[in-house]
Amino acid sequence: MSKEYDVVVIGAGPAGYVAAIRAAQLGMNVVCIDKWLNLDDKPSLGGTCLNAGCIPSKALLESSELYHRANHEFATHGLKVGDVEMDIAQMQKRKAGVVKELTGGIASLFKANGVESLAGSGQVVDSGEVKYTSHDGDEQTIKTENIIIASGSIPVELDIAPFDGELIVDSWGALEFDEVPKKVGVIGAGYIGVELGSVWSRLGAEVTLLEAVEDFMPIADRDVAKEALKTFKKQGLDIQLGARVTSAKTNKKSVRVEYTQGDENKSETFDRLIVAVGRRPNTANLCAKGAQVELDDKGFVDTDDFYRTSLPGVYAVGDVVGNPMLAHKGMEEGVTVAEILAGQKPHVNYDAIPSVVYTTPELAWVGKSEAQVKAAGIDYRVGQIPFAANGRAKALGQQGGFVKMIADAQTDEILGVHMIGPYVSELVQEMVVAMEYKASSEDIARIMHGHPTLSETVHEAALAVDGRPIHF
Ligand code: FAD
């Protein structure tokens, strides 16, 4: 290939494909290389998020939630559906269809924006030079002004529980079961663990989550985490905290897991074991020997505030540069790096990144937790309102949970908002906008919210910061 590019993007996950499209919109000549192969061994754009993460997990969460509701909630609405039959093959087919439409959509977006797409691996050889290797093994050197690394992350594998793709699986494997296992073990009760655990539990599996840390969901506000733990346990998820797995041994049919909890040695046998203990940066073979792209002590690509790596003309964005490993964080960085290359002065506000856990009820938050505000020595006020005081939540039959707003006691600026309840994944976005504009709780309290909507709980929480809620 003799053609020269303005930008070569390595990786077509949320960070990479967005960077490629934005750079092309800004008039740059862009090629995006991605090596992902789907289960049919076909190249598929969209990275982890579209192929094996955000999208397929949400598709199965929806199907499993509907099954659960049909069995347990329809009757209270006066709907008698008799025995609800489950068709896992159809459920998986629907999920695969959603993934196919969206990954194919990226191919169309590339075409529409003039982004060239190459299936295979990219390797940084030096500033301005990338080696491309197709899936057939053909190699080409590509010359380019700039390189954007967006190679993402991969699941952490445990030596004591290596993946075998059958009985011990990673998060992608856990989205592909073709029948409901009777007993499922999950190592790790982070957001991926509880989402996957919820899917299989709603479909009838007995699910046990083994979490080494004593606190449940340490990244969430303690009140939200406490409510979530109580609710998930009530739903039947067996969540064991402070449980350190020491070994996982398979025979042809099951996995025997040994773990310690406090002073006790315990063991449990599962039909399938999901390992969801985190993700690590995907940097294997990313750079040729001698290409000086430095990594930090955790293996993430080291960048400065402008996403520049240690090698001139080489940038990095998305999961490969570090936490939070979230698709929307990667997308914002993708847009930003492209605009920097075009000479603009964009900015990512890392203080206003929404976090969501897509269980039922959902968990969502933005900004600082109460513990973080306290640790920072800030004088603050809290307004907390339960969804039980909200008409729409009652009509939905989903009145568990609450909205908790934390504001600076002196300036009233909103410092963090933490929610657990119905569709809080959508509600949190109002708070992201509010925090982006440095809104006060009074600003939100004085904004009219439609009735009856779940967002009224956000409104009431803002009123509650000043001790004047109307409906609670
Ligand atoms: P990735 O999506 O990992 O994409 C990197 C791409 O680069 C891949 O296609 C890879 O094949 C390719 N690549 C790597 N090296 C090379 C190379 N040398 N040459 C060519 N190609 C290469 N995040 C959310 O925000 N919301 C969610 O609800 C959510 N749910 C998730 C559920 C699960 C089960 C999992 C596992 C993750 C979830 N995530 C979620 C996280 C989200 O998937 C990641 O944060 C996101 O995909 C990161 O985007 P990225 O572009 O940085 O990397």
TrEMBL record:
**Has keyword Glycoprotein?**
no
Cysteines engaged in disulfide bonds, as pairs? 49-54
Alphabetized, the UniProt keywords read: Cytoplasm, Disulfide bond, FAD, Flavoprotein, NAD, Nucleotide-binding, Oxidoreductase, Redox-active center
Which positions are catalytic residues?
A: 451
Question: Other remarks on record?
Answer: The active site is a redox-active disulfide bond.
Family stated for the protein in its record = Belongs to the class-I pyridine nucleotide-disulfide oxidoreductase family.
Q: What is this protein called?
A: Dihydrolipoyl dehydrogenase
